[in-house]
Amino acid sequence: MINQKNYYKSIVMRPQNIIALLFVLAFVASCGSAPEGVEAKKSELAQAKADLKEMQANIAALEQEIKALDPEFGKSVEKATLVTAVAADKQAFEHRIEVRGNVESRTNVTISAEMMGQLKSLKVKEGQSVRRGQVIASIDAESIEKNIEEVENSLEYATTIFEKRDRLWKKNIGTEVEYLQAKNNKESLEKSLATLNTQLAKAQVKAPFTGTIETVPVKQGEIIQPGQPIAFLVSNADMYIKAEISEAYVGKFTKGDKVGVKIPSLDESFDSEIISVGKVINAASRTFAVEVKLPRKDAFLKTNLVALIELTDYAADEAIVIPSRIIQEDLEGNFVYLVDGKKAKKVHVSLGYSYDNLTEVVAGLSGGEVVVDKGNRTVAEGTTVSIQN
Predict the structure, then answer these.
(1) Does this model's pTM top 0.85?
(2) What is the mean pLDDT of residues 322-332?
(3) Which of 95, 96, 111, 377 can bridge 353 by disulfide, Cβ–Cβ 3.0-4.6 Å?
């Protein structure tokens, strides 16, 4: 079927075309006949004007009839600007911060000497595994051993004297002073012997827990001072990630909060949780400590391994979120363009947090609006737009 609008357009000639046609016809007629004088020409021109006026009237009548049938006929059509659009929907939104932390262990210790003396024997080497209570070094304690021998002999004698005094005292023989003196001598020697045995035990340097010897900074035969490191013992029994966070985030995180962890050097990522939040602000760095649980995986169990922690400091279940790239700014603040019918409408908005190329709108939008995305830099208030999603 032939389109009615196109049909009318095809049969109606524009006035300027009709005038040109009449002049052509007049020229052809003049060329085809002999000159008839000025009066004849004037009469011919008057007839042509009358015909033109009648034609213009017919044209105007046809245009009115066509407009009645097609309201869009004769209107200038504005070219629409092609854009894409997104919906300003309500959705769950989180804002996260990333901080750097280190893998640490509560069971990594430096084993030191508790007494002075020559390092008599060194029973471990770097990389060796040891058990809890295993002797890793011995310090020469010959003088202590001799003192123990002397005290043991004295204690044996004092014990014999006390036992005799005790039997006599029970028979009411002797004085109370003699009995108490014998008892005191015995107990004093027992305490001295216990002290010497404790000192002798310190000559045996033992592993406080099961682990691996990382370093051994001494050699057999050296003179050891109290507190001098003998070995560095590491264990993966209780490892965690520790990070320092700015005091600006005080109150944002609590024990049990979920976090994301990345180990850049191992190209590993996993989810974890906060196991401790510090209660003290570091006066120098203005930060507080946060500890994050570390899964028991051999690749992670290395002290001082760098880790990146992502923590959520803000979350909303129903936030109006739009792509950050479509937000523009003018003298009045931030704004976006909405699609209102077929026109672009400028709306100023108040913004909240931005994360992962998305921004929360806290005022200006109510949710569900269609917002101009690509092409938003080429439109203005009232621009006709065509969505091409």
Answers:
(1) no
(2) 91
(3) 95
Query: Would you put residue 291 in left (φ > 0), alpha (ψ -120 to 50) or beta?
Result: beta
Question: Token pair for residue 278?
Answer: 């510090």
Distance CA 326, CA 151 (A): 89
Q: Are 381 and 346 in contact (CB under 8 A)?
A: yes
382 & 321 share domain: yes
Which pLDDT tens digit goes with each residue over 214-228? Answer: 899 999 999 989 999
Tell me the pairing of strands 306-323 and 258-263.
Answer: antiparallel
Q: Are 200 and 143 in contact (CB under 8 A)?
A: no
Assess whether 330 and 365 both reside in one domain: yes
Mean predicted confidence (pLDDT) in 55-64: 86
In which domain, by residue range, is 152 found? 141-202
**pLDDT confidence bin for 235, thresholds 50/70/90:** confident
Is residue 297 one of the residues assigned to a domain? no
DSSP 332-344: TEEEEEEEETTEE
196 Cβ contact list (under 8 Å, min separation 6): 144, 147, 148, 151
Tokens found for residue 315: 């979350």
Is 30 contained in some domain? yes
What is residue 25's predicted lDDT score, i.e. its pLDDT? 55
pLDDT > 60? residue 241: yes
Name residue 355's beta-bridge partners.
358
CB count within 10 Å of CB 70 equals 15
Distances (CA, A) of 224 to 110, 119, 206, 218: 15, 6, 15, 9
Q: What is the helix (H) or strand (E) element at residue 65, kind and residue range?
A: helix 38-69
Tell me: do 30 and 61 sit in the same domain.
yes
Q: Give the Cα-Cα-Cα angle 197, 203, 206 (nearest 5 degrees).
A: 110
What span, in angstroms and rounded, lies between the C-alpha atoms of 61 and 56?
9
In the prediction, which pLDDT does 85 show? 87
Domain boundary among 202, 231, 253: 202
The per-residue pLDDT for 34 is 45
Half-sphere exposure of 20 (CA within 13 A, CB side): 5
